[in-house]
Description:
Helix 10 (328-336) links the parallel strand 6 (318-324) and strand 7. Helix 2 (38-48) packs parallel to helix 3 (64-74). 37% of the residues are buried. This protein has helices at 13-24, 38-48, 64-74, 87-98, 113-150, 153-164, 177-192, 223-230, 280-288, 328-336, 357-368, 422-429, 450-459, 477-483, 496-503; strands at residues 4-9, 29-35, 52-56, 79-83, 103-106, 318-324, 347-351, 372-375, 386-389, 395-401, 404-410, 436-441, 463-467, 489-491. By secondary structure, it is an alpha/beta fold. Residues 159-276 are annotated as: Disordered. Pfam families: CheB_methylest, Response_reg. It is found in: Cytoplasm. Residues 313-505 form the CheB-type methylesterase domain.
Amino acid sequence: MATYKILVVDDSPFMRKIISDLIETDPLFQVIDTANNGREAAKKVVELKPDVVTMDVEMPEMNGLEALKIIMSQRPLPIIMLSGINEQGMRETIMALENGAFDFIRKPSVSNSQDIEEVGQQLRRQLHTAVHALERNRKRAEQKNMAADVAPSPYLQDSQELREEGQQPSTEPQAAPSEKKLLKRDADKRLDQGRPERFQVKPAPQTPNTNVRPSRPEVSTDKAAQDKRSVAPKPADTRPVSKPSFVTGTPAKKQPELPTKPVREEEPKRTKPVITPPVAPVFKKEIEKPVAPSSPPTATPALNRPAAVERNTAPWRQLVAVGCSTGGPRALKSLLENIPANFPAPIVIVQHMPPNFTRSLAQRLNSLSRITVVEAEQGMVLQAGTAYIAPGGYHMIVTRSQGSYRIQLSQEPPRNGHRPSVDTLFASIQPFTDLQRHAVLMTGMGSDGAREMKNLYDSGINSTIAENEDTCVVYGMPRSAVELGCVNHLLPLPEIAPKLIQIVK
Length: 505
């Protein structure tokens, strides 16, 4: 069985030994060497060509962030950062993720054997994800190279045209373009002799060089076929496409979107099944005196209450919910730094990340974005032009009280293996049918968020957006949503922010 080569980088000999032993408990991986600082790591990556690198963040001479930038510019490969939980380490870890690190794990406590084993499980899981992404990228690169070697683009275009017409491309040798044009011109002249003028083949007008070539006119002696040629070209097929309608780029014209299901005001609003009866007095107390994020909430989420009992008095009428995981910090940076300061809706975000790191992530994104970015806290009132990142270790739920929308934090059991969970966030916004809601899924491992995006789609949400495979670090969560058939817009990462600006008005 083939193994993947791993380079372990850490300034502590003891930690290098622990990390190497944890990795090699899986026979799929082999630690081929170690390095004690970033400078040595950058050199050994070029010499040894490992498949994956584990990199300590804080090291002397050259730290992990500086080494990461050098390695990604010389020989890009998956790099998993090992971070301490101090403020400096967390801040540099977030910056490393923005600069191309595959993911990160916290460093284990050397005095706690149980903690070492838990970190080992996380590390091996991330290594498997990294090599899976590596193989996916290799296969896609091979497919592109094979496609480039098949034939020149003009003949590939001919084959595409024939496939669209249900024909098979010819296997006979193709004449040189200049010779084909001469033969065609002579044939047209001979056929035009003695033919009525309206049936004569007119030469195509000279047009600027474009990607679409004029099709060759058919020549037939059948009068019906001749009459057909004299008529203007048939307009493009405008038959509706079965949903979902995937948009793979930003077109010049507005793309048709799937119709949403209208909700009649006299019909009762659909809500999630009641798990625990709401305790109104306790909920009111929480709103008046918000609980700190570190304290577990005691109120039942307000989504269990009928949405019709309260009237929306918020000054905004649209809400964006975003979910991401592996590769998410870099994706969020691309998304949020392109959102204008006057964006007319709140943005609620779940990024799979441990406690404390989400605060560093929010601070970093806030410094780069024109909108305000904060780590969500219990009882916060949602405001337009602000992004709220769920704190690590807590589910984030959107509730409504006294006409305003607020953040509710919960320490209920993990969902899909995650807390915070994207599914939990998406489920909480389903009852708010008086809002225009938009759900976004970006890069991430697994399927968290896909099931509740499907429920939102079926209930008539305004738009659903997923990041496409070309730009995902891990094409897991978006792919799951695509497979469920609940994505209106499938876009590369740079086009997601412009699409949100376009549809949130």
